[in-house]
Design a protein that fits this description.
single chain, 125 residues, alpha+beta, 4-stranded antiparallel sheet, 4 helices, 32% helix, disordered N terminus, disordered C terminus
Amino acid sequence: MKFRKGFVSNSSSSSFILAIRKDLDVCSHCGRSDPSFFELVERSHWHRTHIDNVGWDKVFTMWDEYSDSSKSARIHEFEKKYKNDEWTVAEFTIAFGEEELEKMIRESNDIVVLQSDEEEPEGGW
């Protein structure tokens, strides 16, 4: 599979499998928090931006069945680190031009890219 660095300008969307921290910081004074990544995706006005699957079994079952042994091993590494009460795993399609979502994927400490059709995740496949 060919991976590209960054978002692809000639593509209408990109696919991601993300580990997302479940508990976001809540203000101790007013009780509010920033919108979650899920909320921002659901609010999107771009028809190509959507949540494809949520949950470990839905996201990785088919991928594990059709992957080579190195990817299967990588899935099990992710499982050890992110399959717990602190994280959820989800698959997203993000439309090109979704700058706020793109920035969150790149910069948030609460989001980890496990798989992307855009770039090879840290540690490689």
